Amino acid sequence: MKKAKRIISVFLSLLLAFSALSAGGGSVLFITAHGADFSGTCGENATWDLSPDSGRLTISGEGETEDYTLNITAPWAVFRSLIKSVSVGEGITTLGNFAFYNLTALTSASLPSSLLKIGNFAFAGCSTLSGITIPVNVVSIGEKAFQNCSALTLVNFNAAQSNNLTANSDVFYNAGRSAGGITVNFGSTVTRIPANICYVSGSSYRPKITHINISNGVTTIGEGAFRACNNLTSISIPDSVKTIGSSVFYYCSQLGSVNLGNGVESIGSNAFYDCVSLSEITLPKSIKTIGGMAFIECTGLSRVNYKGSVKEWCGITFGSNYANPVSYANNLFINGALLTQITADDLNTITKIGAYQFYNCKCLESITIPAAVKTFGNMAFAGCTGLTEVNYLGTVAGWCGITFANNSSNPVYTAKTLSIKGNPLTAVTASDLTGVTDTGDYQFMNCLCIETVDIPDCVKKMSFYGCSSITRVNYAGTVAGWCGIQFGSAQDNPVSCSHNLYINDELLTEITLEDTQDLEKVGDFAFYYDSAITSVNLSESVTQIGESVFQHCHYLSSVTLPDTITDMGSYAFGYCYSIRSINIPSSLREIKEGTFSMCASLTEPDIPHGVRVIDANAFSLCFNMRIVHIPESVVEIGRDAFDITLTDSRVTRMQNLYNQAIAEGLDEIEDMPVDMLGRWLRNTGFKLTDVYYAGTFKRWDEMTIFGGNGDLEKANIHFLGYHTHDYYETVTVAPTCTQPGVAMYVCYCGQGTYTQEIPALGHDYHGVVTDPTCMRPGYTTYFCSRCTSVYTDDETPALGHDFSAGEVTEPTCTQGGYTTYNCSRCSEFYTGAETEPLGHRYATITVSASCEKGGYVEHKCTRCTYSYRTDQTDPLGHEYDGGVVTAPTCTEDGYTTYTCSRCHGTKTDNAVPALGHKYTSAVTAPTCTEGGYTTHTCTRCPYSYTDSRKPALGHSFTHYVYNNDATTEKDGTETAKCDRCDAIDTRTKSGTRINPTKDAVLKVNDGETTVDYRSIVTVTASAQGVPDGYILAIYDGGKVIKGDSKSVSYPVGEVREQKTLTVKVIDKNGNVQKDGNGKDLSEAVKIEVKDGFFDKLIAFFKGLFGLLPEIKI
User: Fold this and answer.
1) Digit-coded pLDDT (tens) for 1012-1035
2) Could you report the per-residue pLDDT of 384-434, keeping only the tens digit for each?
3) Side-chain-side CA neighbours of residue 818 (13 Å)
4) In sequence order, which residues have a C-beta less than 8 Å from that of residue 1091 and are 6 or more positions away?
5) 3-class DSSP state for residue 742?
6) Residues 608, 562: Cα–Cα separation, whole Å
7) What is the pLDDT of residues 932-975, one digit of tens each?
8) How many separate helices (H) and strands (E) can be counted in the chain?
9) CB atoms < 10 A from the CB of 338, how many?
């Protein structure tokens, strides 16, 4: 029977051998009949051996194994149905691509500590492989190395060189999907978890990773390490981890519990992106930086805990608003307490509150800011809708010196109130702003408590945006000074809220020539919404009027402008409803957007000659305008510039607004005075009837007129024939160096023209020197800067070659020598006479044969590298000993090592599979302060891991014992010991405080007594009015003699020296009581002793005869 099996096995071996040779990619396959083993080479210094009986494939040798492909497979691939285990021996450094591809019967693999690289698809398709351990020295894992390992349940990752490890894409592609889930353990040798180690890009082929265990010792989790592990529900980060890279838990949609260790300092951008199941996060006090969008789309977050203080929280740098988890949780707990207020102590020594620090912290109700705080970062308090109180402990000037990144970085923007040292800021005074030049851009934004503002002339820039409660603004300076103040927008000007301006406590109603003497520019928004101004007369020094300067000056009716003005900003007089006429300066070349928009009383504007552009909305809604004068200089009219007619829809809207205002008793509605609105409604029906154009029809026809100007085009246009020509120059033929040019002068009307000659320019030469060379003379080339004219001059002679130095090339065994002469100035050279070659000179070396290499005689030239061999012999071959057995361990295979007696080389054989871990479980029950867990420890080796974690139980205090320590000043206490541990809790027991005595009187017989030496003394005392619960006591040093509430007696005995006793009224706890005046009920009894020589002698004889005196005190 055995012989039949042997024949069949050998036959099978021969059959498989042919297929292996055709598919082995050049590897050599050896078949031996002993035990029907299969073996061969799989690399330059690597061999393989397969035992069909055990199904064990062993890779031995050193260095790299060969790379294979889908088409050129490994030599053992034909035996895939036989291979159940793989053992890679020590010395192998690289597993090639497709090394164990599609070994469908493989259940286990043992990899050596020498392994550095695992190739692409190395274990792909090993559908029954249940576990793998990545050895300690691995530095590279190839693409889809464990693809379709569908039974994979355990990955032990021990790569200590993971700082340099490269994990190519999709390492665990489609792995573990038929199993219950993969547990990935990062061992104690790992310091850095590689980037993207568990990430698979295709959403349908992601590995089913359910548990990740990280050993204490890991310091960094690389970028995207656990990205899209959407079967992961919880993870614990050990205290050793300092850095969590970007996108580490990106789209871990089932991750509901994260325990961050106490050493985490940095969390990268997008780290918890779209972790929608995460409901709570606790940040350790060690955290310093959280990258942009770290918690974006964590919509399930409902609580954020921080283990540090508010001050330490302010030290965290957030990369964006969604880097702060509070943006979704809307709350922040500091050491378990909900943060509703920030106190000055919380911010003690803080100078900056960073960007996004309290973003969306809706639980925050109040904040007190120390004067030391100087900077608030971007959106620091955005979304803090619960904030109602802001208190600053510095001065108003100090507040103006703070830097706010934007409006929502200032808590006042949300709270709408500000207190200075506890007092609501209702008035900003000139003394508050002494020395202040800039109040800041966002300092008072939305501060509704401010009612009056008094500004000194030192202020050059200010903002009171949104301070709608301001009713009065006073400026302690001049009108010209006010015109120089810088406002960032119209709403920054407090006048936009008060609608008035006082100059030195006098209401400003007129701006006169004297007010603007020497003023060049009226600054942007200077009088925006000043309803008190009725008249403006600017001096000739003014050349510029800024943007929206007089916009919404509703009662401004008289305006006089000098012709020196060359620029008027957009909406400079917009919504000045009362202006009936205005002299537009003749120096103006552009009427900007909205300059006279909604000047509803303007009837006949005269646009001066020289204006070329009338911008959009320049005269829009001037619905009382009937005539307009336009000069021939205008070349463009912008959109809606003359859209002035009150359409039916506009009239209806105005009527509705008027009715609403009357019904609600309003003086103004939508920035329109109600009395003016009524007047307009009574005078509807006006339209533009006539346009007087100071140019020709042709010129009008060539003008660019944008849409929305139907009112202008429907009016009667009157063309004027005569005018004084105003020419502009156009160069029609440009002059050159040798030819004159021609200039044409054309009037803006298009009719008047003439030409004039422009003289030729003449050449403008500059020289470029070309130096002489050995063969070519030098010269200077002169180029004209205006045209292509060029000539050469100033020639210098050629230098000639300089062959003064020669470079010697020595002869070699096969080449002659020579001297090369190179020109020192150029690349020319020549060679001198050549010498003969030297010829080879040989030395002979004899090399004896070794086990693996043959012997030979080598003839080597002593002058050069040439050599040749003779007398070659065969290798001797190895002579191996009986072998040394290395027993298998949990993770490493066992084997037998054979040593050659000649060369001491070794080989391994008789591999025994790794034993695998054999665990015993020990349950550590939770305690009051520590969580419980189960530790699984291998009985064969030191490896262990923990799971089944349970939370700490917390203390249980149920049996309290009263300590009898109440006094007249406070209640007593009671103490309990935890039912589970030795923890002690002490708390106040209310209602135990002892009432003081009021009418008690202590009586002592004698305060001081002198007695004979060795007298037998008894001290007594009594008291009256001592209530129940009190007793008399005599104190003799450390001895206490207690009586009752009325008396006490103490037999002192023989007295040989001075003694002082104290009589006290005490409570049951030994506390001295007080009388109605608050004085201690305590008296001293002093016993003096006669202790002279004769006193002692007399006492001696009295004692002999029992005659010692007995004295009661």
Assistant:
1) 999 998 888 888 777 777 888 888
2) 999 999 999 999 999 999 999 999 999 999 999 999 999 999 999 999 999
3) 10
4) 1013, 1056, 1057
5) strand
6) 13
7) 888 888 888 888 877 888 888 888 888 888 887 776 677 788 89
8) 12, 87
9) 12
Out of 3.10.150.10, 3.80.10.10, 1.10.357.140, 2.80.10.50, the CATH code matching 219-333 is: 3.80.10.10
Q: What is the pLDDT of residues 62-94, one digit of tens each?
A: 999 999 998 888 999 988 989 999 999 999 999
Judge residue 225's burial from the number of C-beta atoms within 10 Å of its C-beta, 0-12 exposed, 13-18 middle, 19 or more buried.
Answer: buried
Q: Are 236 and 212 a contacting pair, CB within 8 Å? A: no
Tokens linked to 849 = 């044969």
- Residue 950 near residue 933 (C-beta atoms within 8 A): yes
Domain 1001-1112 sits in CATH at: 2.60.40.10
Left if phi > 0, otherwise alpha if psi is -120 to 50, otherwise beta: which for 847?
Answer: beta
d(CA 195, CA 172): 13
End-to-end alpha carbon distance in the chain: 124
Two structure tokens written together for 376: 């608030």
How many other CB atoms are found less than 10 A from the CB of residue 1050?
A: 23
Give the number of other CB atoms < 10 A from CB of residue 542: 22
Question: Is the Cβ–Cβ distance between 694 and 609 less than 8 Å?
Answer: yes
**Rounded Cα–Cα distance for residues 80 and 99 (Å):** 12
Give strand pairing partners of 392: 369, 420
Cβ-contact 597, 591 below 8 angstroms:
no
Q: Cα–Cα distances in Å, from 458 out to 394, 431, 482, 483, 495?
A: 20, 11, 10, 13, 18
Q: Residue 984 pairs with which residues in a beta bridge?
A: 977
Identify the burial level of 656 via C-beta atoms within 10 angstroms of its C-beta, where 0-12 means exposed, 13-18 middle and 19 or more buried.
Answer: exposed
Query: 787 and 776 in contact (C-beta within 8 Å)?
Result: no
Q: What is the DSSP string of 336-398?
A: TEE--EE-TTTTTT--EE-TTTTTT-TT--EEEE-TT--EE-TTTTTT-TT--EEEESS-HHH
| For the chain, domain boundaries | 219-333, 340-425, 727-758, 765-796, 842-877, 878-916, 919-950, 960-989, 1001-1112
